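Our consortium's second objective concerns turning raw sequence data into structural hypotheses that experimental partners can test. To show how far this objective has progressed, the report includes one record in full. It was chosen at random from the queue rather than selected for favorable results. The single chain below, 156 residues long, was entered without modification.
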Amino acid sequence: MDQQLLRSYLATVYELPAAQGAVRASLDGDSSRSADELPELLRSTFAVLTAYNPRSMLLPRRVNEVRHQVMRDLLILGVYRVEPCVGFEADKSESVWREPAWLVHGMDRDEAIAFGRVFRQNTIIYAAGGRPEVIVTDPTADDVGRAFAGWWRVRA
């Protein structure tokens, strides 16, 4: 994977719904930080999935919305608890890029990867036990299936 693209994925800030209010976090944190210090949500098992812009191809808004709704419906049929979330560039004041996603609670890693492949995403985010990872799911990529470890960085 291109190192600049990987850095971009790791630095993306995700706004995730939690019982105590939204948690904003990226995957470019400090590896020495204990998982015990993280908000409860970030210590749980979940995937962050989207159906927007497959293989980084910009699609019309309406097409993206329909694809995203189909993904949600399939996840719910799979009996997952699904909540809307969003990913955006670290600097919100200058950021123009925002991509809706689904926070999928308790999802199995292999099934999350399968959703990424079916919806032609470059990568997905998978987290378990306080350890997030970026997993390449684009079947045309040389490193498909490769995972890049990250560490949570809670943002204000």
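The partners drew two points from this record. Strands lie at 13-16, 23-26, 46-49, 81-88, 98-105, 123-128, 131-136, 147-149, 153-155. The chain has one domain: 3-155. Both points have been shared with the crystallography group to help prioritize constructs.
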